[in-house]
Amino acid sequence: MGRIYERLDERLRAFIAEQPMYFVATAPANGHVNVSPKGYADTFAVLDDHTVGYLDLTGSGAETIAHLRENGRITIMFCSFGRTPKVLRLYGTGRVVTPGSPDWPELARRFPVDTPGSRAIIVVAVDRIADSCGYAVPYMELAGERGMLKEWAGRKSPEQMRAYHAERNATSIDGLPALDGL
């Protein structure tokens, strides 16, 4: 049933590219575990055989950023909701790259950073690649992407977005620094 992979080969890359959403899980040393659904086309990229990244968009919180700043642990999970059952997990260590970071210009070319609400790129050094059957995952059909986040963020000026980040994304629900100081 389950299998461990040495690297993100072409078959795994194709599977990842076919999935319209994925889930990101992180946890602080002490505090709440966080699982976030992610979507939008072109916001996830396989950077090499052991490195992936995704465009982090403004949300109601910043748990992933806070947890990565604390300990770096992250798991990304892709589920097939189509005919072929499969769950793929990428385990690794993540880091936060913000627009002011030296790595930003090179990484930004891989993502639509002009997407309203873009606040960071999460880069993950993958140290374990594993799949499982996904036999219990239901079949589902994609109706389309929700435009709500892009529309909401698109109505904000840069000053309004900075104020939102300062109010809602500075720390995690456990009080860990997130966008505060980034």
UniProtKB/TrEMBL annotation:
Pfam families: PNPOx_N. InterPro entries: Pyridox_Oxase_N, Split_barrel_FMN-bd. Residues 8-131 form the Pyridoxamine 5'-phosphate oxidase N-terminal domain. PANTHER family: PYRIDOXAMINE PHOSPHATE OXIDASE FAMILY PROTEIN (AFU_ORTHOLOGUE AFUA_6G11440). This is Pyridoxamine 5'-phosphate oxidase N-terminal domain-containing protein. It comes from Actinomadura rubrobrunea.
